[in-house]
Amino acid sequence: MKITINNNEDINKMRIVCKKASQILEMIEYYIKPGITTEKIDYLCHNFIVNKTKSISACLGYQGFLKSICTSVNNVVCHGIPNNKKLKEGDIVNIDVTLYKNGFYGDTSKMFLIGNKYKKKIKKLCKETLKSLYISIKIIKPGIRLGLIGKTIQKYAEKKGFSVVRDYCGHGIGKNFHEDPIILHYEDYDNGIILKQGMIFTIEPMLNIGKFETYLDKDGWSVKTIDKKFSAQYEHTVLVTKNSYEILTLRKNENIDYIKI
C-alpha cells in the first residue's frame, strides 16, 4: 500500500480542482425541479465543466462510462447513469462530480430533494447522511487511526435508524482518481494506518433506510439497494492539515460547525 503525502504545490492544485468541482453542485441546484431529466442535468453540468471551469470530467469515458456525472435516484446507491426519465415530486437524487485539471482530481457529491412533497423519513435520511459525513470530518487530525472515520459514521447512522452500505467506500485521491487508502464507512480493521499531514482522501457515506446490502444493476453501473428502499450519499474531498482538516470541496454557504461532537 502506497499512501501519498502531498506537498504544498500539489495541495494548492488540489484546492483549485476541488473548488471547481464544488461549483458544479452550486450551479446545478437552481435547475433541480420536478420535470427535469437526469440527462438534462448531465448536459448542464458537462457544459459548465468544459466552458466555465475549463476542466475535464473524470467520469466521462472512465472504464466506459458514457456520461459526465453520476445521478443516483431514490434506491440507486451510487454510479447511476443519467437518462431521459423525468424526476418527480418526492424523488431524491445524488449528483456526483469528479473533475480533472492540471494533473489532479477533485471529487464531491450532494443529495437533492425534488419538490416539496417528500416523506419525512426520506428528508431525515438525507439530513442524517450529511451529518454522518460532517461528524466524521470533524474528528480528522494527524495521529488518529484511519478506522475511526468509519466507526464514527456507523455509530451515528445506526443510532439514527439507518444502515451503512458496506460494498463501496471512499478513497485516496490526487494525481489519480482512486488511490490508497480505502476509506470505509463502517467499523473494520484499518491495517494500522495513522492519519498524517498531507494525506488527501474522500469520505462519502452511503446510508439506507432499509438493509445495507446492494446489487449491481444489469446496466453494469447503477448500484441499488437490495430491498428497493431509498439511499442517500454525500461526499467531500478532505485534506489532513498540521493540526486538523481542510474540506477542499466545501461549497459556498456550507457550514459544518453547527454539528457538535
From TrEMBL:
PROSITE patterns: MAP_1. InterPro entries: Creatinase/aminopeptidase-like, Pept_M24, Pept_M24_MAP, Pept_M24A_MAP1. The keyword Hydrolase applies. Gene3D superfamilies: Creatinase/methionine aminopeptidase superfamily. It holds the Pfam family Peptidase_M24. A divalent metal cation 1 binds at D96, D107, E235. Keywords: Aminopeptidase, Hydrolase, Metal-binding, Protease. Its cofactor is Co(2+); Zn(2+); Mn(2+); Fe(2+). SUPFAM superfamilies: Creatinase/aminopeptidase. It is an enzyme of class 3 (hydrolase). GO terms for cellular component: cytosol. Signal peptide: none annotated. Coiled coil: none annotated. NCBIfam families: met_pdase_I. Monomer. Removes the N-terminal methionine from nascent proteins. The N-terminal methionine is often cleaved when the second residue in the primary sequence is small and uncharged (Met-Ala-, Cys, Gly, Pro, Ser, Thr, or Val). Requires deformylation of the N(alpha)-formylated initiator methionine before it can be hydrolyzed. This is Methionine aminopeptidase. It comes from Candidatus Annandia adelgestsuga. The gene is map.
